[in-house]
Amino acid sequence: MPNSSKKVQLTTKERLLVFAKKPFIAIKQRTTTYLARRAHRSFRLTKRRDYARSLQLPGYIAFTHSVNRTVWQHRKVFIWLAVVYAIMTSILVGIGSQDSYSSLVTTLQDTGSQVFQGNLGQIGQATLLFVSIGSSGLSAAPTEAQQIYLIILALLIWTTTVWLLRNLLAGHKVKMRDGLYSAGAPVVATFLVSLVLIVQLIPLGLAIIGYAAATSSGLLNGGVEAMLFWVTAALLTVTSLYWIVSSFFALIIVTLPGMYPWQALRTAGDMVASRRLRILLRVLWMFGVIVISGAVVLIPTILIDTGLVNIWPVVGNIAVVPIVLMLFGVVAFIWAASYIYLLYRKVVDDDAKPA
Description:
Number of strands: 0
Low-confidence stretches: 113-120
Distance between the termini: 54 Å
Shape: globular
Number of domains: 1
Structural class: mainly alpha
């Protein structure tokens, strides 16, 4: 029986037309798939039945305790991890300058009598020191080499913490050195996702720069100009916060074997869709816990260091506060990575539950 199907021969013009249409067809298919995954439409009121998604999470304090329990349960691994990266940070980046800290203390002591009175004077000065250290640090502007080392160390700490938690929670017996040797594979992919996160923070940076300029120029003294500025700054801040929620999860997803950065960003966006605000509040809570913990650790350290210097001036030559600040920064970063990873696991577990 002869074959009835015949190959259609296209003319050169038709081939060029098909070739020109391919990119647009691919874009249309991706757009259709994207809209099928996401319920919201820009500038349209979305009905609740279309975007309501389950997200059963423990309370804020309960979840924080669960993160602390998980880290404490494997404290030996994470303590050694903090020690190793603290040593690497001290060697490659350095710690805060004791001279800068001493100058800051002297300045506050000279002006503190005009601000603080009574028994709260030392506590007030210590609080001001904590705020100054937290906002500007104790070191001069890092060199280009130090900035590169700092980025590499941050990526390695993040990937190592995620690798260790993923294996420890899976019941595998791993050591800290296993994480150091095995967690570096997705560093490049993690770096690319981090670049996306930095780009997403540009609106927030513009709002901060605008606030500094508006304060110096007196724009915020009142009037319509001040109202317009605050509205614009709020929109820029909300835009950055809206974007970065999924990027935090993408930093976790991209560490999976065979995962590409864009694929991780797309998957993370699908995970947080229709529950972005609830996850954002958890992330903001994490930063609040870190700030409060920093105050609890550093303010007493500053008070004790000041008291010891008044008794034994030679103690002023020892960089107690800069060392404690550097150690706290490493521990806080490991804890934050653990918090984000465990939050990601909670969302994954919730998605895995039968409807």
